[in-house]
Specification:
2 domains; flat; mainly alpha
């Protein structure tokens, strides 16, 4: 069973803040305009494409530690924890996905109704339920919600957590 002292809890909070800053650093691209090979460019490249990439694995580790916190055996509080994770992870993921689906359908219909917005609307807004579900369930990088891939992976890890435990 994993228990966390107040000190460990505070350290996890600090680590979370640092990881959030690293994720922002990974997604910021301030290298534009810098001379290739310059010290500034190399430093930003080293940080944003190197060091800061540890943030997401650390988030997964923290999530796992917190998921197994106070769990004595794999099925003891598994259903209770799944209910909490359903509210905090699955519902936001599904909500955003449905919003993405709705906006895609809306943009597709507007583009077809207003050809002046898009000269080739059928090519640029090609959409079908199969491609959306593939992007949503299998490879989020294919869809509009590519930045939420970690939520999908967390959901899968929650479901197989008794095996991991």
């Amino acid at each position: 069973m994993i228990t966390l002292s107040k000190d460990w809890s505070n350290q996890i909070k600090i680590l979370n803040v640092l990881c959030i800053l690293m994720v922002v650093g990974v997604h910021s691209d301030s290298r534009q305009g810098h001379v290739l090979g310059s010290t500034s460019y190399l430093t930003q490249e080293f940080l944003s494409r190197g060091v800061f990439n540890v943030a997401v694995p650390i988030f997964f580790i923290i999530s796992g530690v917190l998921f197994f916190k106070d769990m004595e055996h794999p099925f003891g509080s598994y259903t209770k924890k799944l209910k909490v994770r359903f509210k905090t992870v699955v519902i936001p993921y599904l909500s955003y996905s449905l919003l993405s689906l709705s906006s895609t359908i809306l943009l597709q219909s507007v583009a077809r109704l207003t050809p002046s917005l898009n000269n080739n609307a059928s090519d640029d807004f090609s959409f079908n339920i199969h491609s959306f579900l593939t992007a949503w369930l299998i490879d989020p990088q294919l869809g509009r919600a590519g930045h939420l891939w970690f939520l999908r992976d967390l959901i899968l890890l929650f479901l197989i957590s008794p095996l991991i435990f």
